[in-house]
Amino acid sequence: GYVGRDVDSMIRDLVESAIRITKQNKLAEKYSIAEEIAEEKILEAIIPGKKKNITNKNEARGPFDFLMGNFANNSQKQEYEQMQTEKQPEEGEVELAREQVRQQLREGLLEEQYIEIQVTEQPKGNALDMSNEGMGIAIGNIFGDMPPKKKSKKVKVKDARKILREQEAQNLLDMDQVTEEALINAEQNGIIFIDEIDKIASGSAYRSGADVSREGVQRDILPIVEGSVVNTKYGPVKTDHILFIGAGAFHIAKPTDLIPELQ
């Protein structure tokens, strides 16, 4: 706080760390489910499955079906449907091939094979972090939430497994729950280490210039150490139960040079 950002930033840094730790713990719990989903997506990329049949026979499956339904007689329609059925491989054959590929995947025989997968594009530079006010403004929120873009990427199976696992675990994550748990964790188990606290201790001889500035920093730190509410972009955080550890060399100043309330 003496040089640089305001003293509230140490609470925001603590909350950021809590969010990161909680998110990693929650992701680890979701990995087992995400791995299964990733395996299915890799299988789909290697052997595309048979398209699901539409149960409602009156519903058109495509533009040609629509035309056939409106303009063709029954015999032509039956002939067209038979031709479409013959094009599709037998469902049993597809399932058998998929099971064989699944076995090869689990045995690690296809790790170097290239496949094409759909990955979510990461947004770049769409957040404005106003640290002094403790607010984070996402441009997406101003213009309305935009759906994430997807792009095709050609990668090896071993890389695809990692990418898809991470992607699916992120999709399974409930960020509201992560934020709630992280804020409680920061408030109840947070530890902040204030190093070189002797640098803000004012000399007892006279107080002018830099000494006044140092005392100002002490008065800024005081409410946070005593217990107050700091606004962060994830929500308000109470500092009552956060453990603050101060340390310094105190070779010029003495601990008694700190303001009495802070001592």
Task: Describe the secondary structure blueprint for this structure.
Elements: H1 9-46, H2 63-71, H3 74-87, H4 91-106, E1 114-120, E2 127-130, E3 135-138, H5 139-142, E4 150-156, H6 157-172, H7 175-189, E5 191-194, H8 210-226, E6 229-232, E7 235-238, E8 243-246
Parallel strand pairs: 5-8
Antiparallel strand pairs: 1-4, 2-3, 6-7
Helix pairs in contact: 1-4, 1-6, 1-7
| Major sheet characteristics | 2 strands, antiparallel
Structural class call reads alpha+beta
- Compute the number of strand runs: 8
What percentage of amino acids are in beta strands? 5-15%
Q: What level of helicity do the residues show?
A: 40-55%
The dominant shape is: elongated
The value of Rg in angstroms is 31 Å
Q: Enumerate the strands of the largest sheet in spatial order, edge to edge or round the barrel.
A: 1-4
The arrangement of helices and strands along the chain is: HHHHEEEHEHHEHEEE
> Which regions contain 5 or more consecutive residues with pLDDT less than 50?
51-63
Description:
The chain is an alpha+beta fold and 263 residues long. The protein has eight helices and eight strands; from the N terminus they run ααααβββαβααβαβββ. It has a two-stranded antiparallel sheet. A two-stranded antiparallel sheet has the order 2-3. Strand 6 and strand 7 form a beta hairpin. It is elongated, with a radius of gyration of 31 Å.
Comma- or semicolon-separated keywords:
two-stranded antiparallel ribbon; 263 residues; single chain; 49% helix; alpha+beta
Q: TL;DR?
A:
The chain is an alpha+beta fold.
